[in-house]
User: Fold this.
Amino acid sequence: MATVKNKAMRRARKGERIRQVAAIPFRLREDGSLEVMLVTSRTTRRFIVPKGWPMKGKSGRKAATIEAQEEAGVRGKSPKQPAGIYSYWKRMADGFVRVDVTVYLLEVTEELANWQEAANRQRAWLPPADAALLIDEPELSTLLQNLTIPATAPARIISRRSTSPT
Assistant:
């Protein structure tokens, strides 16, 4: 990952836009209402969606799925088509860079009690409208407010938590 990030930072310093991938984990409650999961960032503790740098040899969808497992402790299935794109200003040690993020929905099938970044992050299940209020990035907030589940996603109802370790 460090190599991808370093390459992206070199491109950003030349004025090029860089890209990341993200997942919006979702589930349906027993009453049929939709919930999405947000996680806190490691540094600012703001609520965000799990996201990260593209991974060499992996599709954007696969990389977003991996980020969701590492950052939010969830596993699931993701439609092939992205749910949308948003841009934000990423804080770096020497300033800010503009990042374009391709977002994939992730239908959560398993929520882990222990995961890679559990000690560094908190996670929360929220209705999309509430999640949108907690997000600082306006484009991501709009994406959450207008979130719809694609017809191809079965959207199983999740009512219990897994305690499987990673």
